TrEMBL record, chains A, B:
This is Dihydroxyacetone kinase subunit DhaK. Coiled coil: none annotated. PANTHER family: TRIOKINASE/FMN CYCLASE, TRIOKINASE_FMN CYCLASE. Its EC number is 2.7.1.121.
Amino acid sequence: MSVKKFLNDPDDLVVEALEGLVTASAGRLRLHRDPLWLESAAADADRRVTLVSGGGSGHEPLHSGFVGPGMLDAAVPGAVFASPTALQVVAAVRGVDRGAGVLLIVKNYTGDVLNFQIAAEIAAEEGIEVETVLVDDDLASESDDGPGRRGTAATVVVEKVCGAAAARGLPLAEVAELGRRVAAGARSMAVALEGAVHPGEDVRSFDLAADEVEHGVGIHGERGIDRRPMAGAHELVGALTEPLVAALGLAEGDRAVVVVNGLGSTHLLELYVVFREVAALLEARGIGLARSLVGPYVTALDMAGASVTLVRADDELLGLWDDAVTTTALTWETR
Amino acid sequence: MSVKKFLNDPDDLVVEALEGLVTASAGRLRLHRDPLWLESAAADADRRVTLVSGGGSGHEPLHSGFVGPGMLDAAVPGAVFASPTALQVVAAVRGVDRGAGVLLIVKNYTGDVLNFQIAAEIAAEEGIEVETVLVDDDLASESDDGPGRRGTAATVVVEKVCGAAAARGLPLAEVAELGRRVAAGARSMAVALEGAVHPGEDVRSFDLAADEVEHGVGIHGERGIDRRPMAGAHELVGALTEPLVAALGLAEGDRAVVVVNGLGSTHLLELYVVFREVAALLEARGIGLARSLVGPYVTALDMAGASVTLVRADDELLGLWDDAVTTTALTWETR
């Protein structure tokens, strides 16, 4: 008996959810099949840089919820926690290119990196200009060898800033450079209170004792830095945030965009308690809270836990952040 | 050992979360203490009807996430799953009244009804014009005697429509009448796959077997109609939606606003699968899908489950629905 979820056939989950999303979008999104990718149906037809991102499903609203004016032109969904194929990515790149080039935003996982790279090469051979921004913000996975830091919640900030830059009509090289600058100035750390349950399975992806947490967990349940005793929010959040401040070298007078991200089943009340602790920590150090997001933006199925992302901010980045965006998961008028 | 959550002292959860929300709002929200209530800090100062809602905490983003231009002027939070006091409500009414009267939007629970009623009487004695809209959409709790249907996710639709009507400058009696019409045309039904855990406690509020669900559950975990076998999404959602269609007498050619609401820990992928089933059911019956919301809007802490709300729609209601709104949890430009 699998753990209870709203499912028909687990193999159909991703496609059925996308069908639901497209129906709910009332014409704002369009689904392509064989291969599968999701496109913004906004009427804007400027010759401008377009943006494609994607990755394994199970992290919603990432990436499908960020398709729309001011952010992504297309999202390419894999199966749950599995990379999309290169052919899916190529189809999206072909579909959204308007002659000004396509930016690929890729989270740093072996499968995603490989498949997006193959897609970029195929597209380049077809004469489509392509640049790639790699997002690798997860400080817990930093090491001297191996695949490098994993890509997690900073992806939302990269997608927002690059989407705004593309909407302003900046050329591909500049949009890509902005994305790399945001990614380079972003670090995240997550803590899990409970593991996730994959659709159709009957156990959590990992088990934690009633009095321990997984500090530095990845968004697919990858092991973190260590298991630690459960503690109050103040202590848990300090342990997430202090290493980010140190890694980015943030000091008095600097400014940061803060994302407090729910990993799945953590309640909004708790996420605001987490945010309050982050804000207090930054204030105590004289670091400016430039902008913030609080909510489930990059989930790990129904994992209980949260991540904190800090992004070094400057006027250019904040100006782009404030530009209008109209997607399912992020919408604002020019601020 | 309590179940792990991001908490400092559980008694401080609600206030700390509100502090986090206000900090994240960057000046858009203002918190009042002694008594506790949350106010929109938007600069708009028209002489117009203002809206106050509230109720127990633990349902976020309801109500705090819906404070802002085009929706609520104030939210009055109680402790988790407990009504705010009449004095909190009175303070909010006094604070937001601009001489054109105040609309109270109240979910149908004994404590809330009583405390908002006392507040309305006190405010009226002070010369403030007050009207109340009672939201009682939960079909599972319909009975010939007792307190009547509980108020659940239709509250979001009532708050949105009344907020738009107030922003348009309609008089209090008309705003209240609109709210009553929306509430009368709205029915909801929820199913729980797992119970919730209260902050600081160590067990779920109710236990379900691995192969059963609570059909017709309330947003505080109140018992529903019966316990049923776990089933696929198609069957579960049909069992929620068909009684709503019947209760509202929706027939071919009618239109409905649909809210598919996550009760807490249910993933967005699943909610879109649920929505897909609702949309297919309506389409098969020739009922128009006028507008929709899919996401966690009225939660029951971290309960696993979902509710479906149908609201009978007409051009006036949809026009108000489409008006601009700028809150933490619901934002769009005029559609």
